[in-house]
Each structure stands twice: as structure tokens, then as C-alpha cells.
Write a structure and sequence with these properties.
mainly alpha; Arc Repressor Mutant, subunit A; 8 helices; 2 strands
């Protein structure tokens, strides 16, 4: 389709009409997917989509399908849906995203997005993952020390912990001078 449009010299209004026809045929496809197929800018597709949704010529969808075939949440969720989700979350902030999604009849990722906004604005508290929220921060596991002999790995970890507890710093630190790790590993 793109090659055909590139050969034809269409006016701006004619291109917008081609985009509108494509959106009427497949409203579930993403703006970027339509834009790539038609050889127009994705902002043009978004503008035409907004016009068609405003006049109810195409449905307003919560999710769109990308070029890779995966379904993703639309950039802007319909305001009425957002209001229903917000009301459900304010009534029971401890409910899981999946439970709220089943009540409101939408996707749990859409509920998660609205929940995140409400947490940011302080309307509901941050919940732990066991109650449907996400962890506030992700922690990294402690680095593992590999010794020459696998049996010495635990002793090397303990020795480093001792150095940290004693305040032993880098090579220049007076407490680290002359210290050696068990098994002949230098610190």
C-alpha cells in the first residue's frame, strides 16, 4: 500500500482520507503500524483517529495491536473507563489490580497504570506486591565472590563482611594494610 501511495501524488486531504479508510477497516492496529503501512506520520494517524473516535465512526479501544502482533494498552485510556477504575480503586485500594479489572471489565495493566497515577498524586497509599501493588524499589542481590576453591567462597564472603564491619576501606586505608583473605586471596 505504501508503494502505491508513494507513486500517487495525493493532497493532504486525500492522504487523510486514505488513513481514515484504513482506520475504519482495522481500528485495533496501532497508529505507528498504520503510519508505516501507509507512508504517513504517526501523528497524522493519531489526529485522524481522534476525529473518527469523536464522531463514533470507530470504537475507542483500550488496547491496540502493534506491528509485532502484540496487544498493548492504548496511550490514552478512555476518560470514562479511567473514572470507573479510579472510583473502584478509591472504594477499595487494597483490592488487587486483577480484581478491580474484573469489576470494571478492563485489563489489569490499565488498572495498574491508573493505580500508579493515584499513588503519585497521594490519593491512595502505596501497596506491597502481595496486595496488588508493585514493590517500591527493586533490590539487587549481593555480589558473589568466586574463590579458587568453591569451598572457600563462603569464607571469602565472611572475610569481606568483616572488613566492611570494621570500617576497612580501600588500599590506602590503615586497617586494610597487611590483611589477607582466607585461602590466600588478597583483599
Amino acid at each position: 500500500m505504501r508503494a502505491i501511495l508513494a507513486r500517487r501524488h495525493l493532497s493532504v486531504e486525500q492522504r487523510r482520507q486514505v488513513v481514515a479508510d484504513a482506520l475504519r477497516d482495522q481500528p485495533e492496529r496501532s497508529n505507528a503500524d498504520h503510519a508505516a503501512a501507509l507512508g504517513v506520520d504517526d501523528h497524522t494517524v493519531a489526529d485522524v483517529r481522534d476525529e473518527l473516535e469523536a464522531t463514533s465512526e470507530i470504537p475507542t479501544l483500550d488496547r491496540r495491536v502493534g506491528r509485532d502482533g502484540k496487544s498493548r494498552p492504548a496511550f490514552m485510556v478512555e476518560q470514562a473507563l479511567r473514572d470507573r477504575i479510579r472510583k473502584a480503586l478509591l472504594a477499595g485500594p487494597e483490592r488487587s489490580n486483577r480484581a478491580v479489572a474484573a469489576t470494571v471489565d478492563c485489563d489489569d495493566k490499565t488498572v495498574a497504570a491508573v493505580r500508579d497515577e493515584l499513588v503519585v498524586y497521594g490519593e491512595i497509599p502505596q501497596l506491597g506486591p502481595q496486595l496488588g501493588g508493585r514493590p517500591a524499589t527493586k533490590t539487587k542481590p549481593a555480589p558473589t565472590i568466586l574463590a579458587r576453591n568453591p569451598a572457600e567462597t563462603g569464607r571469602a564472603q565472611a572475610a569481606l563482611q568483616t572488613l566492611d564491619d570494621d570500617g576497612g576501606g580501600g588500599e590506602d586505608h590503615p586497617r586494610s594494610v597487611g590483611r589477607r583473605l582466607p585461602g590466600g586471596l588478597d583483599g
